[in-house]
């Protein structure tokens, strides 16, 4: 059988490597795809999580519209919980296509909530990175059981475990399991793709995501932990894995039929992991002291008579987030009511103090960029986003920082996964044009625009 539109998602694959190796023939299927179609680089705000990007992809909504900036956040009840729990009213683009009578199959799109009834098949959390559920879910319910029974359970993976320095045998075992996972997904997807005619067939592969986090020091010669010769000794595992994914894409394209529109998408690049998070509890404590003293004196000087009428300022706090960025909030939702947001003074003063942090050993500034998501990103739920997003430098994990105003702050360096997500990614599209699909600030409406280009 065949499909009108085939979308292959390479979760966590580095867009720069895909572009390079699809240019020189290292990935022959993607080389052919880009020669027959078009390729564009994607963009995203610095520090945005893959959870936020995949939510935008599914819903066709911006980060400020859907509000999922991380998988774990404060819910409207005030409790901390899974972000998808407050997205029950949002429909994915494939649900909308289904409601229009189109036949759709969706296999392992990353970061999905509970599957809804659909005119077709929807499998969630079988072979994915970062599961939202303890076991695979599906519509119909029998699909998850059937896939597991016929194509196998997920191979072992260290991705969800505490970071460790992997030995050569451990890395080789991990690569073997990732290649097994590619084969399982490819075989299962082709089985269901061949079963009937589809309007949309959508399949996600997680293996490049796992490799990017755990093996990036092998792929990136600029990585602080890079060992020259180790990648070659181990058989160039990142390249080998991407070649396995390239072959799987070729099999899917062949099964999709000659008339299919084909899109291959990865939403991010990868870079050496770095963090400031080990220092931030003390940094935030001292920021609050400095902000409180300075802000109070400013108010007293300006309008002391209004001081009693001004609501007290909630303290600056840390939000759960990926380790390579720091999410800060001055105030947070309390029940269904939104308390006051930070004023310009608070934001500017905090940014000034953060930019003044210097590495105690090198004297270099440790903050690379600071974003203001809750103010600068549009959308009805932007107030739920972090007030500040603070990004350090890739590969940098300072032992201590110095500041004229905050003093010296030190903490034990954490052991991190070698790689983490960076702004970037790309889309390759064959059978339709990419006009209007370029320079996205997130993944909102990308898939819907591709679906609109399907041949009738």
What does this structure look like?
The chain is an alpha+beta fold and 456 residues long. It is built from 14 helices and 19 strands. The chain has an eight-stranded mixed β-sheet, sandwiched between helices. Strands 10-11-16-15 form a four-stranded antiparallel β-sheet. Strand 12 and strand 13 form a beta hairpin. Helix 7 runs antiparallel to helix 8, helix 7 runs parallel beside helix 10 and helix 8 packs antiparallel against helix 10. The chain is globular and about 70 Å long.
Task: Provide a short characterization of the protein structure.
The chain is of the alpha+beta class and 456 residues long. The chain has 14 helices and 19 strands. The strands form 5 sheets. The chain has an 8-stranded mixed sheet with strand order 2-19-9-1-8-5-6-7, with helices on both faces. A 4-stranded antiparallel sheet has the order 10-11-16-15.
Q: What fraction of the residues are assigned to beta strands by DSSP? A: 15-25%
Q: Helical element count?
A: 14
CA-atom Rg in angstroms: 23 Å
Work out the helicity level: 25-40%
Which class best fits the helix and strand makeup? Answer: alpha+beta
Q: Describe the biggest sheet?
A: 8 strands, mixed
Described by the principal axes of the CA atoms, the overall outline is globular
Topology, number of strands = 19
List segments where confidence is low: pLDDT < 50 over at least 5 consecutive residues: 296-311, 333-339
Distance N to C terminus: 17 Å
**In which order are the strands of the major sheet placed?**
2-19-9-1-8-5-6-7
The overall pLDDT, averaged over residues, is 89
């Amino acid at each position: 059988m065949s499909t009108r539109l085939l979308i292959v998602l390479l979760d966590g694959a580095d867009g720069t490597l895909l572009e390079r190796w699809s240019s020189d023939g290292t990935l022959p299927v993607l080389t052919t795809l880009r020669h027959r179609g078009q390729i564009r680089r994607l963009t995203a705000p610095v520090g945005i999580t893959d959870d936020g990007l995949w939510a935008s992809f599914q819903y066709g909504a911006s980060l400020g519209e859907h509000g999922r900036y991380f998988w774990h956040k404060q819910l409207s009840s005030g409790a901390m919980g899974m972000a998808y729990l407050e997205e029950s009213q949002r429909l994915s683009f494939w649900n909308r296509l289904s409601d229009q009578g189109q036949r759709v199959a969706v296999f392992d799109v990353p970061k999905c909530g509970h599957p809804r009834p659909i005119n077709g098949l929807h499998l969630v959390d079988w072979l994915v990175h970062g599961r939202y559920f303890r076991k695979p879910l599906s519509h119909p319910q029998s699909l998850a059981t059937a896939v597991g029974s016929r194509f196998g359970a997920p191979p072992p993976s260290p991705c969800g475990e505490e970071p460790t320095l992997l030995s050569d045998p451990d890395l080789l075992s991990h690569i073997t399991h990732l290649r097994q996972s590619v084969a399982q997904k490819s075989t299962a997807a082709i089985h269901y793709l061949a079963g009937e005619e589809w309007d949309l067939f959508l399949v996600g592969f997680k293996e490049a995501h796992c490799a990017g986090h755990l093996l990036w020091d092998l792929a990136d010669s600029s990585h602080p932990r890079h060992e020259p010769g180790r990648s070659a000794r181990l058989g160039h595992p990142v390249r080998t894995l991407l070649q396995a994914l390239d072959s799987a894409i070729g099999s899917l394209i062949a099964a999709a039929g000659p008339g299919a529109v084909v899109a291959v998408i990865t939403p991010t690049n990868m870079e050496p992991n770095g963090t400031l998070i080990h220092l931030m509890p003390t940094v935030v404590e001292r920021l609050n002291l400095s902000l409180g003293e300075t802000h109070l004196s400013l108010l007293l000087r300006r309008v002391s008579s209004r001081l009693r009428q001004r609501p007290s300022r909630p303290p600056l706090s840390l939000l759960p987030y990926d380790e390579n960025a720091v999410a800060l909030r001055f105030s947070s939702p309390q029940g269904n009511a939104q308390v006051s947001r930070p004023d310009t003074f608070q934001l500017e003063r905090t940014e000034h103090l953060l930019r003044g942090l210097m590495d105690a050993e090198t004297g270099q500034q440790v903050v690379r960029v600071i974003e203001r998501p809750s103010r600068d990103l549009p959308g009805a739920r932007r107030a739920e986003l972090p007030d500040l997003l603070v990004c350090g430098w890739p590969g940098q994990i300072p032992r201590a920082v110095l500041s004229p105003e905050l003093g010296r702050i030190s903490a034990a360096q954490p052991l991190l996964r070698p790689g983490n997500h960076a702004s970037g990614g790309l889309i390759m599209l064959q059978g339709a044009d990419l006009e209007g699909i370029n320079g996205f600030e997130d993944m909102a409406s990308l898939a819907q625009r591709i679906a609109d280009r399907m041949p009738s």
